[in-house]
Amino acid sequence: MGDHQKPRFSFGADPTIRERIRVVSPPAANANIARHLIDMAASQPSRAALKIPRGRTRAGGIDYLILNFADLKIEADNWHVRLAAAGTQRGDRVLVMVRQGLPLIASAFALFQIGAIPIIIDPGMGLKSFLGCVRRSRPRALVGIPLAQIGSRIFFREFSSVEKRVFASSSLMARLPNNGRRAPLEFQTASSAATDLAAILFTSGSTGAPKGVCYEHGMFEAQIRIIRETYQIEPGEIDLPMLPIFALFNPALGMTTIVPEIDPRHPAAVDPEKIIQAIRQENVTNSFGSPTLWRKIGNCCLTKKITLPSLRRVLCAGAPVPGALWESSRTWMPQGRLHSPYGATEALPISTISSDEISPPTANADQRRSGACVGRPVESVEIKIIGITDEAIPTLAHARELPCGEIGEIVGCGPMVTKVYDDNPAATAAAKISDSARTWHRMGDCGYLDVNGRLWFCGRKAERVETGGATLFTELCEHVFRAHPSVGRCALIGLGQRGQQRPAIVIEASPKNADAARAFARELRDLAGSRPETTRITLFYFHPQFPVDVRHNAKIHRLALARWAATANGFDVTTK
Known about the structure:
The chain is of the alpha/beta class. Among the domains are: about 25-45 and about 70-215, Rossmann fold, CATH 3.40.50; about 345-465, Luciferase, domain 3 (Roll), CATH 2.30.38.10; about 470-570, ANL, C-terminal domain (GMP Synthetase, Chain A, domain 3, 2-Layer Sandwich), CATH 3.30.300.30. It contains 16 helices and 28 strands. Strands 2, 3, 11, 12, 13, 14, 15, 16, 17, 18, 19, 20, 21 and 22 form a 14-stranded mixed sheet that branches. Helix 3 (about 70-85) packs across helix 4 (about 100-115) and helix 11 runs antiparallel to helix 12 (about 360-370). The protein is globular.
C-alpha cells in the first residue's frame, strides 16, 4: 500500500456493531461529562478525533491510525457494553490501567456514560506509592492491560476490593459479547447532577503521600469552559498532549488528539525529534508539557534551526518556566505564544501568564528580584495570600489575609476547585478552607500578589527553610545560584528541625574531585554573599542526578535531597 493510501479505522465498516449499539443522548439538563463526546460525534462526526502512531511510512513520515469523532463515540459505546456486561454499575469505583490515547479516552467516557467512577493513578509514581493508592481507593472493578491484571493477582491484598475485571488486550479491544442478539441494544447515558462524583485523580505526591482528588461533573465542566475561554481554543484545533490525562479534555473542546511518541512513565527520556516531527507533520496548534520537556524540544529546534509555525500556544506547567525558555520560545514558535497555567491537581488553572507579558529584557530580572510570576487569576477564580501555618484552617475567618507584596500561603477559590480528598478527612482538613458555600484550596505554595494583581510564586510551603532568624524560600534563593554558568539545577534545603534549620544549597553536578568541588563551593559562596536572601548560606553539596517527579520531570524532590544530605559530605565555606 502506498504512503498516500493510509487506511483509516472505522467501526462503521462493521454493520453488526452499527446495528447493535444505539446510545440515547442525555437530556440537556444532564451534567454528565460524557455528553460532550456525544455532541461532538453529532456535530462533527467526520472530523479526526484521535491519531495514534503505529510506525513510519516508506517516506519516513509518521503513520497514524485515525479515528473520527463518530468512530471514537462508537468505541466508547463498545466499552460501555463490555463494561456493563461485566457487571459495572452506576457508582462503581473502577481502576483504569490502560494505554494512553484511545484506550484511556474511550474507557473513561464509557465509565462516565454508565455513571461509574474512573480512578486514574500516575503509573510512574513508584510501585509502593501506586499500591498504596490502590488500597486507599478501594476499586470494585479493574479495567487493565494483561500486565496490570497479573499485577493485581500478585499484589492481591492491595487489590482485594476488586470484584470485576475487564481486560484491555489492545487499543481496539472493545467488542460486543457474542450472545446472538441482533436487535439494537439501547442504553441511556447516566443522568448526573453537577455535584455528582465523576472521577478520582491522584496527585503525584511530590511533597507527600499521593492523595485521591474527588472531581465532580460540574468541576470538569468549569475546567473545560475556563480552559477554552482563557486560551481561546476553537473546535477543529489539533492537540499533542504530553501528559496523557489532558487528552480527556479534547473531546469536549472539539480538538483532534495526536498521541505523542512518549513513555508516560519516563517522559524526560522523550526523543524531541519525534515530537517535532509530529507537530510539523500534523500541523499541531496546541500542546501541553512541562518546562523540562519543552526546554528539551526548544533546544533541539534552536540547534537544528527548526521552527514550529503551526503552534498557536504551548501550555507549560509543573514547575516555574525558566527565563531562557520564555525567551527562546519566541524563536521556535514564531506564530504562537508560550503560556504557563498555574494550579494543582486539586485546582487547575487558577492563574496564567504568557510570553507576551514577560518581555525579554525583564524576564530574568523579574525572577532575580521577586520569584516567578505566574500571572493573574483566570476568569471566575479568586486568589488570596494568607499567613503561613502548618495547622488546619477550618474557615476563612480563621485565616490572616496578607497585604500586597507580603509573602504568605497561596489559596484559591473557583468553580473548578475540588472540595475533598477521597476517604482522607485529615488531608481534606489540612488543605481546604470553608467559606460559606465555597471551598478554598490551600495550594501548598508560598507567594504574594503585587499591586497589579499578579501572583508571584516563591516556593513550596513544605520546602521553606526556617532558621529561627529568617524564612528562606526556594525560588527566591535558587535563582541566585542559577546565575553561575556551571549551574543547571540547584535546590535549597534545610538541615535540622524547622525553626532551627541550617540552610544549604545542593547543586546537580559531579565535580571531578574534592579540590574541584571545594573551589566550586567558594564561587557559589561569593554569589550567596551578593544577595540578602542568600547571605546566610555557606554550606554546599553536589549531587549527580536530582530526584524529580515522574509526571512532569520538573519538580525537584528537595525533602529527599535534605534526607540525603544529612549523611553526605558537604563543603562548608565560611570564609573566602
